[in-house]
Description:
mainly alpha, single chain, 0% strand, 65% helix
Amino acid sequence: MKRNKPSLQDMILAGLRLAITDGYENITRDQIAEELGCAPSLIPYKMGSMADLRRHIIAYAIALDCKPVVAQGLVRLHPLCMELSKERKQEALKPFGL
């Protein structure tokens, strides 16, 4: 079976999609690898630790205004999310009644 060699951006976007459905703190290297059709060992090789990957995912969520993932970051007091304006925080949390 031929394995894909996804880019760093591919990995982050796959992680972002998984964070929406499975939860930001619940994503794993194996899930991302399966989503991308690559070897799980490629994820830390390109991304570093899962903490590094999660930081990238939160940064992308903020840049793309992905409210479900930004809301997860706010609930977990992620530093990048905590730096957002009061308005952006409220918009991200609004669908959840928070």
